[in-house]
Design brief:
InterPro entries: NTF2-like_dom_sf, SnoaL-like. This protein is α+β, with helices and mostly antiparallel strands and 167 residues long. It has five helices and six strands. The chain has one domain: Nuclear Transport Factor 2, Chain: A (Roll), CATH 3.10.450.
Length: 167
């Protein structure tokens, strides 16, 4: 079974196992994430800031320059600024909520025309706290494609700049 098929099968199981969004809180949480995606779609990274909790942790898997935990709104917005520079887009496909969790499946892509492109399905699991995104965990369908894209379009600074003590 391919990764994409596994992801789709898992999403269908989640839909059948979970109640139909559970109630008003789940509906509000899904709306929050839909509104976040609408803000992201503007192409202005600052537009997502109002959706972020002060202690947010956004986890990006991979072995590339943008991978790792982003802590706090400053780091998360800086990450989105990098995505905007790479013309990265996201198209939501599916939402499900249970309690303080919202899971979405979306298509993410960029075709900047230089080097490898990226076009795959992602799942994001959001934890909502006090009407804000407190945590986000990103799951990919093709880690190798992701790593190749980000290494090509987001190279590290030369060693002297990376090793400089900015404090």
């Amino acid at each position: 079974m391919t990764r994409l098929a596994s992801l789709a099968a898992g999403a269908l199981l989640a839909v059948s196992a979970a109640s139909a969004n559970g109630g008003p809180q789940e509906d509000r949480n899904i709306q929050l994430i839909k509104d976040y995606y609408a803000a992201y779609a503007t192409g202005n990274p600052e537009a997502v800031r109002p959706f972020l909790a002060p202690d947010i942790v956004w986890r990006i898997p991979g072995h590339h320059p943008l991978a790792g935990d982003k802590r706090g709104p400053q780091e998360v917005v800086a990450f989105f600024r990098g995505l905007a520079d790479g013309k990265f887009r996201a198209e939501p496909i599916f939402f499900q909520a249970q309690g303080d969790l919202v899971v979405d499946i979306h298509r993410g892509w960029s075709n900047v025309g230089l080097g490898p492109e990226i076009d795959q399905l992602y799942a994001l699991m959001f934890r909502i706290k006090d009407g804000k995104i407190a945590e986000a965990q990103n799951f990919l369908t093709d880690m190798y494609q992701s790593d190749a894209f980000y290494w090509t379009h987001y190279p590290l600074k030369p060693l002297p700049g990376r090793l400089a003590d900015d404090r």
